[in-house]
Design goal:
Layout lengths: L6 H14 L26 E7 L2 E8 L6 E6 L10 H10 L4 E6 L17 H15 L6 E7 L1 H12 L4 E7 L10 H11 L1 H15 L3 H12 L5 H11 L2 H17 L6 H6 L4 E6 L7 H10 L4 E5 L11 H20 L1
Parallel strand pairs: 3-4, 3-5, 5-6, 6-7, 7-8
Antiparallel strand pairs: 1-2, 2-4
Helix pairs in contact: 1-5, 1-6, 2-12, 3-4, 5-9, 6-9, 7-8
Amino acid sequence: MQAPSGAPLICAALRLFRSACGARPSSSGTVSMEKARLTPFPREQAAARICMVSSFATDLLEIKSKEPSLHVLVIPGNPGIAAFYKDFVEALYENLDGQASITAVGHISHSQKDSEHGRLFSMHEQIDHKVDFIEQELQHSEQSIVLVGHSIGAYIGLEVFKRLQNKIKMFVGLYPFLKLNKNSVTQSAIGYIARSSLLSKGVSLFASFIGSLQPSIIRGIVRRFLGPSWSVAAVDVACCHLLKYHTMRNVLFMAMTEFQKLTEEPDWMFVRAKEDKIAFLFGVDDHWGPLSHLEEISKRAPGVTLSVETEGHTHGYCCNEPGSFWVADYVANFIKTQKRH
């Protein structure tokens, strides 16, 4: 079986996707926070299930606490595949001493099964979807809700916070993508592909072609393009969920709508109004959330809790265990500090 014509362009697109995920070998660096526990075993296992939210099949990854004092909702980046966050969800549950229920809510049609029959969903529709999930599933919950958003999930989380201010206790943005970075070649290239229906279809077709190969071949290709730092579990998730035509089409369509919206400035008035309930974690070398954006937040909303991770983890922290454990430790520490105030 031969690859479709245009494969070199598609391979280049996959390399761009690798860059978008921040895939690179992890390296050590200066420690700016308390080290995370890197081997929290045995630990409570997160369970996957499908929930219908406003008639849309929604992938969830969750751990339910027996006596929860709060509920943490994790909003993925793009790809919005909840299963990528398994290590993070489990580590966060442990670091919160089992006293919080944790749920990662996947984006519509970023999934193994094409339940929506090829329909494409914009970022705005994904925001509505997260609001609908909270109103449907947590309407009668007595626990406080903490939103944790990764990458574009940080932007989505802020929008959800704005709409449900009476329900949300605090918000944490991880490696946040809040506005376009005009200096990023990767963002420019992804934007170019996402804006072209022809290129988006080509990338998606080639992804589905790879996904149709024998499992051992698929894993080898994924590890080759996405890097050796990815865990075995993350590689398996990419093979089973990402390499689908409908998923890749939705990833690129959502990216197009992200880039259109993020030409605008964030809602600084809202961020200032809630600055004591908001935290952002930035990476040292992250083109999605460069340190210049951290500096702008510090000027616009000086009460926001701002931190920089300097241990060599990447934008795609959730795709390996060390990154997942370290970031989970950071989030848990922020939540515990806020609860004491």
